[in-house]
Amino acid sequence: MAFEAQAGERTAAGVDLSDARLPRTVIGLAWPALVEELGLTLLGIVDTILVGQLIGSDALAGVGLGTLLLWLPMAGSLAIAIGATAVVARDAGAGQLGRLSQALRDVIFLATIWGVVSSLAAALLAGPALRVMGAETDVLPLGTTYMKAGAAAMLFQAVTLGGNASLRGTGDTRTPMVIALIVNLVNVVLAYVLISGFWIAPELEVLGSGLAFSIASAVGAGIVLLLLVRGKGILRYRLEGPALASWTGMQRVLSVGLPTGVEQVQFQVAFMLYARIISGLGTTAYAAHTVALRAEMLAIMPGWAFGVAAATLVGQALGAGRTHAAERAARLSHYYALALMVVTGLVLLALAPQVTRIFTGDSEVIDTGADLLRIFAFALPGLGTSAALAGGLRGAGDTRAVLTIYAFSAWLMRLPFAFLFAITLGLGAQGAWLGAVIDNSVRGSAMWLRFRQGKWKEIQV
After folding, report:
1. Nearest 5°: CA angle at 179, between 174 and 180?
2. 169 vs 98, residue with greater confidence
3. By CB distance 3.0 to 4.6 Å, which of 69, 193, 392, 433 could disulfide with 375?
4. What was the pLDDT predicted at 33?
């Protein structure tokens, strides 16, 4: 074996699993993931702010619907990324460098194939998909333009997600953070220049927003591939060998990732139906929903970040045969995420109007969006629990259980209650977001029960 765990305390990738330092290790992995997610989230938020402030509510609704549809193929990219983190973490924890190198090649191959398919589908099906989503006459051409311009980003983001997930599997969360910050900076500059026609650039409005998204995503993919080809830590992407990808290796990644892909697809379909309920309430309601959704993406980041830490540590600990460390890492991630999400919820309750005002100057959109954020503040404890513990379960390879929980909460909680409150009881967009509160609360409870059962400790990856 090329290298071994030192005194049973440190895994092959150098992540410290000792009891005394584990809290610091969790935080050390989570904070770069938090900054990374902030950067990736700002890709969409900057577009929303610029489109809302520089163009108007119709464009805001069009970009919102277009972004929602672009999320759907991202489910496949996320599936590959989740599989990558789990497989790479196991191999790193066990010190199996040969399998680690092949796993990286398999991940990049899968991400590239899926990215090409996703980009083509997004470009060709933009108009029909927006019509299915109920885009109004003024919104449809704007959303179509944005989707076609942003379609190429699906390929580049698939590669970036796969590469970054592999790095996180070795315990390197700082490199993905830096890449995300660079991508975000490129997007901010290009979006402003191309939307507004700054200096010598043409004023492209919604088209400029989509192009900026694609170009910035291409920069991210180029950076991560360059780093992996040169070698980053114990990871190096090598093109030489008997085959570019291994069928057995791809099966390992997909055995963990496919349930996550199905989970994300069904959840995104449910979320699209949820958005369809809200879009039927009018452009103002959907613009407010879009604004609140962008702010929500910022609010949920602590849960996601500690989920990343849990996935890496659980995978590496199980690979090293240390189930106690795996369980403790997941519990610590949960406690930290829950505390931060409660604080975030209190901030949203106090500052909801000020937050929505950042995105738009439309007073009606601001008022409705503030109501939505206040409502969603009550969903954050459950969301923090589900995000952190789902990360731990995924890191262990228990992705089928996570799929079942997400499907149950989305289809039997969110959609029925959203329709009941928004349409049947006439509470509008506010009623639909009450359905989201119920969804997240039930999902968090179910995730906690699954984790307590402990079956994830026995899964082989």
Report:
1. 95
2. 169
3. 433
4. 87
Nearest to 293 by CA among 343, 220, 368: 368
* Mean confidence (pLDDT) of the chain: 86
Cβ contact 88:51 at 8 Å: no
- Say if residues 103 and 249 touch (Cβ distance below 8 Å): yes
Taking a C-beta distance cutoff of 8 angstroms, is the pair 325, 17 a contact? Answer: yes
DSSP-based helix, strand, coil % in the chain, nearest 5: 80, 0, 20
One-letter amino acid at 191 equals A
CB crowding 96-110: b at 16 or more within 10 Å, else e = bbebbbbbbbbbbbb
- Give the model's pLDDT for residue 32: 92
Which ranges of 280-398 does DSSP label H, i.e. alpha helix? 283-299, 301-319, 323-357, 363-376, 380-395
Residues 6+ apart with CB under 8 A from 335: none
**Per-position DSSP letters for 231-242, written without gaps between them:** -BTTB-----SS
Give backbone dihedrals phi and psi of 336, rounded to 5 degrees, phi first.
-65, -45
Return the SS3 of 6: strand
- Other Cβ atoms less than 10 A from the Cβ of 332: the count is 21
**DSSP tag of 16:** B
Q: How far apart are CA 47 and CA 206, in angstroms?
A: 9
Residue 57 clears pLDDT 90, i.e. is over it: no
Q: How far apart are CA 80 and CA 37, in angstroms?
A: 18
**Residue position matching structure tokens 């180029």:** 222
N-term to C-term CA, the chain: 19
Residue where the block lists tokens 């790095």: 167
- State how far the Cα of 191 lies from the Cα of 53, in Å rounded to an integer: 13
Q: What stretches of 120-244 adopt beta strand conformation (E)?
A: none
Q: CA 384, CA 394: separation in Å to the nearest integer?
A: 15
In angstroms, the CA 187 to CA 192 distance is: 8
Residue 418's CB is within 10 A of a number of other CB atoms, namely 26
Q: Which two tokens stand for residue 183?
A: 């991508």
3-state per-residue secondary structure call for 35-59: HHHHHHHHHHHHHHHHHHHHCCHHH
Maximum C-alpha span of the chain? 66
Contact between 170 and 88 (Cβ < 8 Å): yes
Summarised one tens digit per residue, pLDDT across range 60-108 is 777 777 877 887 788 889 889 989 998 998 888 877 777 888 889 999 9
- Cα distance between residue 113 and residue 124, in whole Å: 17
Q: How far apart are CA 172 and CA 210, in angstroms?
A: 30
